[in-house]
Amino acid sequence: MKYFFCILLLCASFKIKAQNDNKPFILTLGIAQDGGYPHMGCTRPCCTLAWSNDSLKRWVVCLALVDPATKKWWLFEATPDIKDQLHYFQTLTHGQYPFLPDGIFVTHAHIGHYTGLMELGREVMSTKDLPVYALPKMKTFLETNGPWSQLVSLNNIAIQPIQADSLIHLTDKISVTAFTVPHRDEYSETAGFRINTVDKKYLFIPDINKWDKWSRNIVDEVKQVDVAFVDATFNDSNELPGRNMSTVPHPLVSETMKLFENESAATKAKVCFIHFNHTNPLLWDAAKRKEVEKAGFNFAKQGKEY
Length: 306
Prior knowledge:
By secondary structure, the protein is of the alpha/beta class.
């Protein structure tokens, strides 16, 4: 019994470490691609185990930025799993923060990244002026297309227009800068975010076409931060048999690793892969994951504090 309570204390201290020292931190509330894991309709080996084992399930990519000093927090992405993720956040933080975030940052108009906003409407939460931070095209998309436009007209959400490369001060210890990345921009531009806290810097790029299509150098960008959450949708080019993968371009994990192969161990360790498609073996194959970790890279883990 004595050892049991020691274990409980150790677990509790791990979860609230950052809260005790009052420094801002990030929690990962989801790591999967837009369809989540397991994937709808998938009966392939990659998803079979997860259908029968809840502990293997992973929600769609989502981060929580938390400031213990002010008891404020912000959500990055409004996913289809937002109901579970808000509850999960309360569990991880032991109910020390408001249920709803102080704002939501949205990267783009693909279903895994903004459709959770519907839960804020009159049918569910009926929130009041919840700030939603969006770049210009994303703002227009939400204002002019239902059901999102109803969220605006009923004041469930209050869109906060942001501009690329402009600093947003959330508190005296936290700032956020949006920037654009090339992606399949059918309805909106696609944002990435740089998050600066009092002592840590984070990069968040869950979706991008290819690194060489971007006007910036990903290696240089990673060197400027402490943790870089980057697109890991696919591990290699053979994951979607019978489908032209050029129609869903993403930097393969193997390609990203190649770009960093001559960098220092400290730089490689900053790379934290996220946004895994259900076909990506790095989501469910321990042996494959060990290979990547042995090469010096990391994976975003659902529920982990950064």
